[in-house]
């Protein structure tokens, strides 16, 4: 028995959480005499495995490691656990473990990273097992109490029934006993056909507070004695802070301190953020902008255009046959050059984090898409070891990939470190947020297609030139210098595979990395690859004198899942029947994040420059749909994000800085501009794909192809505002 | 110092008269449901009611708001009864990240007060808030549900 206890101790390492704001849960350990260890939540209720806490009143607390930023996966993940747990869904609540607690328990909650549309698909297996494990333990505890075999007992809706005798008990009543049992080594998961909760569009678990103003986002965190900081980082990326004249603002109302943040930024700390921001604007600052101040959008475009030249080196991402030779000898050739600009995530809530640093502890409260990365940033910036640091996650006012980065967390700690014992809330102004994004990378693409005498596409050369995200953010993921993610949507195989069969194919990337920091922007490299490929597919269809849908279908015989979603949107939008008078259609498909998606748009165009989008149909095959109501919202929201970028987006560079400063120069779609999105879900089962991002890829090409159908004009660069095209 | 009447209570706040009302509400009155999104009256996240009219509080100074009846998202419910817009938002699961929704709800509540049965064109004209998650479809459907109730 003693040996058993020590094994339990080892497995569930002792952690003390701090019961502070946003802490989510605190964990204690009690070791009954002679019995195994029980891990307890803050309120004393026992854990039944790491994912589930059951309270005496039958409330089930499900631990969620991934972050909720609006995409709904907090609810979806809870559904996955509850499905296997067989608990009463109406009594389910959730909590976030902290990264510090997870690290101290040998990462019992796995990966916290919430990007790449992986929240559900990457954790579905182990969280369902977490639910099943708890169910087995709870049933075993009831069976033990009744002195009957567990095999004679069943569980449903948090009630355990001994079938032969009809006796019943509830999860809350047996939770204490269940927590003392050794978890089963393996559990069997349900066959998807037996799912009752997975696949249902149950309501989100986090809505009420979002309608009353009670939801706490990072910007809303309040701690006793807290001060507020406003920051300005060198507007030229790579530049440095030279000097500032603190005396000019020292006497301003509320100002407590002016601090240098690293070697690139300065922050004003004041009683209120408004005072901090006002003083920061009055603070004379001199920057050492460095050579990057010579860079402009024009100079970047010129450099990228050089990369389109075949003489320049490039990484080959997808290849078969001999595209160059086939093109050289072809009966007919089509060539086009496209481009896609930088984009800012522009989350509604600007970047912020609150840090409290003392000599022996550093805690941060923030919205983050990656709790463990934020935790690592706290360790690094504070210089304290893991057991003295933690990150308390709060709701994100949008993420879209931006909050997977930790620059703002690091800054908050660097400021707090200069004021030990005082909690500091660092909030970026919208202008700072626009100036210091991690931008959607800039690229250009030259495509050449070749036909034989019978108008069959015999070759395609797709030459991408531009920025690599991994080069900047995860250089360890490069493969002999190549960024494999650059080929998202046009890759040979995998979760973002090309959906067409072309006998001679060459897809390559001439990597060019300007100084503007790139990031994972919702949809990431699928966005521009889908625009380039799907708009060019339309150009090829036109050159072949064929219908864009039929032309695609002929190339998709070996890609049945790609074809199925394309067919689904074509059918729903009525592709083969005439559109209403003056209305024109466009279609597009792509694969990304393990899912197959397609979109179709109906638009009308006035004077060649005013677009009215009448209708959007979208189709998605993510393998399994956990919550159709949330999938529908993600698909519709993807069009708002993708079309906002198409019409209004685009960040330009002048003197090494981003020119756009706020929503007046980086606009976003409004309700009047957005039609209803009709979503067709065609989950084919057998795989788990992502939902939050892939659809964005088809938003822009569906509309651009419809614009060509309406006007006969090809648009090959984004945003449309640069060409004086806007919403009607 | 300024006297502001927020959600039926008159508060004496240590705040300069040229401070944007948004920041007086958030930092001085401590009501954080009203959100900062842009500071230039573009996005609508900071929408509150001033004498019943939806206005962007980042573009109003404290001195302009003095003597007016200010209602924030926290004051929209009547006691324990949520406002019909809040109820509809919950029933139809409108919010995604939710950050813009305080402002969205305040804008919709003001619209419905003025036009209880708004057309799509009325909605298009009155609701100009930015939502980066893209909840527009649910917003529109929820407004029509309320109007047809």
From TrEMBL, chain B:
Pfam families: Fer2 (PF00111), Fer2_2 (PF01799). Residues 1-76 form the 2Fe-2S ferredoxin-type domain. InterPro entries: 2Fe-2S-bd, 2Fe-2S-bd_dom_sf, 2Fe-2S_ferredoxin-like_sf, 2Fe-2S_ferredoxin-type, 2Fe2S_fd_BS, Beta-grasp_dom_sf, Diverse_Oxidoreductases. Keywords: 2Fe-2S, Iron, Iron-sulfur, Metal-binding, Oxidoreductase. CDD domains: fer2 (cd00207). PANTHER family: BLR6218 PROTEIN, OXIDOREDUCTASE WITH IRON-SULFUR SUBUNIT. This is (2Fe-2S)-binding protein. It comes from Bradyrhizobium vignae.
